[in-house]
């Protein structure tokens, strides 16, 4: 696939997370969820700058980090392309798991939890579930 993949970076300037790391994290999430697949082209630095109003060097730093991790490769004059995916195929091929998580999230919201509360609770349960696992 030579066209740019459907990934849009969202930068939260209040998050306390470095902008380039937000791009790295969002790219990894897209790889895990099957939004990005091997052969897909990432948006150019110019496209990201136009969409997010961040410094082009920040985009390039994120892409260099992803390249260092072996997830993407820069092809001179062509762009930056996905080399490999992350995660398990079950993430994208198990709709019942996604539906159950969606239902749990709706119940948590109905119980008055906001996004940060849900994230904290989920992270706590996730950490305790994978305690001692090298990949957590």
Helix content: 40-55%
Number of strands: 2
Segments where pLDDT lies below 50 for 5+ residues? none
Q: Average pLDDT value?
A: 87
- Arrangement of strands in the largest sheet: 1-2
List keywords for this structure.
two-stranded antiparallel sheet; mainly alpha; 136 residues
What does this structure look like?
- With 136 residues, this protein is mainly alpha-helical.
- It is 51% helix and 6% strand.
- It is built from 6 helices and 2 strands, in the order H-H-H-E-E-H-H-H.
- A two-stranded antiparallel ribbon has the order 1-2.
- It is globular.
Fold blueprint:
Blueprint: H1 19-32, H2 45-52, H3 56-68, E1 72-75, E2 79-82, H4 90-93, H5 95-110, H6 115-129
Antiparallel strand pairs: 1-2
Helix pairs in contact: 1-3, 2-3
Give a summary of the structure in a few sentences.
The chain has 136 residues and is mainly α.
């Amino acid at each position: 696939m030579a066209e740019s993949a459907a990934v849009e970076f969202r930068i939260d300037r209040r998050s306390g997370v470095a902008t380039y790391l937000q791009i790295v994290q969002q790219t990894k999430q897209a790889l895990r969820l099957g939004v990005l697949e091997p052969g897909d082209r990432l948006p150019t630095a110019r496209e990201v700058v136009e969409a997010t109003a961040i410094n082009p060097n920040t985009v390039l730093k994120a892409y260099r980090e992803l390249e260092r991790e072996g997830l993407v490769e820069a092809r001179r004059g062509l762009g930056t392309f996905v080399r490999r995916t992350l995660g398990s195929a079950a993430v994208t091929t198990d709709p019942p798991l996604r539906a159950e998580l969606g239902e749990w999230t709706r119940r948590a919201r109905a119980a008055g939890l906001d996004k940060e509360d849900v994230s904290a609770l989920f992270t706590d349960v996730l950490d305790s579930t994978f305690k001692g696992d090298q990949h957590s």
